[in-house]
Amino acid sequence: MSIKSAHLQNFTVFENLEVEFSKGINVVIGTNGTGKTHLLKAMYGICEEVNNNSDVEGISQPYFSVNPFELIRFNENLNLKTFVELFFEESKRASYNISEHEGKKSAADMLSYHFKVSDFKTKSIFIPAKEMLSHSNGFLALYNKYKIPFDKTYIDIIVNAELPEARETSELNEAMLETISNVIGGKVLHENGTFYIVKNNGNKIEFPIEAEGLRKFGLLWKLIKNGLLEEGTVLFWDEPEANINPELMPILVELMLELERKGVQLFIATHSYNLAKYLEIKRTSIEQVLFHHLHQTEQGVKVESDHYFGQLDDNPIIEADAKLLDEVIEGNFDD
After folding, report:
1. Which of 17, 81, 86, 13 has its CA nearest to residue 49?
2. I want to staple 34 with a disulfide (CB 3.0 to 4.6 A). Which of 30, 76, 167, 239 is the partner?
3. Of 58, 65, 59, 77, nearest in space to 15 by CA
4. At what angle do helices 249-262 and 171-184 cross, to 10 degrees?
5. Are 113 and 94 in contact (CB under 8 A)?
6. Could you give the CA distance from residue 229 to residue 259 in angstroms, rounded to a whole number?
7. Residue pLDDT, tens place only, 49-101
8. Cross-strand pairs, 108
């Protein structure tokens, strides 16, 4: 079930942010410190806790590894509520709330639902910026035993990748798997707690010694093979372009568009001009792509959204690209 909109108040860098989302691909851009990852993590944490109906009532510890008090933007005003609220299809909504207590020195957090939990499920996947499958061997056991300070997004992606493969694969999934196999030169295998890329010549390459860009494609291959990226899934992907060779960017974008056509809603945080621009020019009238620019103001971070990447005001990615081009031109004239 897709997310229609979000409202964040007094949460980390957000004083009061309301944003409408596309049912397809949502590309979140902004300079460092504008809350791109915070937004994705908060949304993912709410989706997961709603879907699992778990005993964990908050998301501060599992997903941010901090006391909820640290997530409050202004903690001097006890009358100012701190929350993240998601609005789903069919008028469903869920809220993550933080309340201060004990002399402004600590806080408690919890989730509240505006629907019957038993009637509402949403499948969500979060792919962190850091590739984690190369660290999978023994990592989960270590985390469960010692509670090492890794946020749950790192744990979840390993758990999802280690799930058994789906019994059946659709034609669309087979086409995507073939595309990824051509990129990585083989297929992904999980065996005895270790991930491998089994090359077409039969060689088994452990993930830690494979190129990180290829490992990212390998992770996507495994998630598709496990049947996790299907209609109704919400995929959060933090900096998918990291360590990807520029020549592979069009292939990555085509895969994202294929997932959108399959009914997957995507939230992508990126600093890449190439990734954002390829999504703009490669989409057709069928795919829904919406760009969201987070930017700092005196009232906290605000958002500007547009269907065209180049139409966003004060676009930091385009400005950086233009500055580099100016310096190249000036340098050539100096020569």
Report:
1. 86
2. 30
3. 77
4. 160
5. yes
6. 7
7. 887 765 455 788 889 988 888 888 887 766 788 899 999 988 888 888 888 76
8. 99
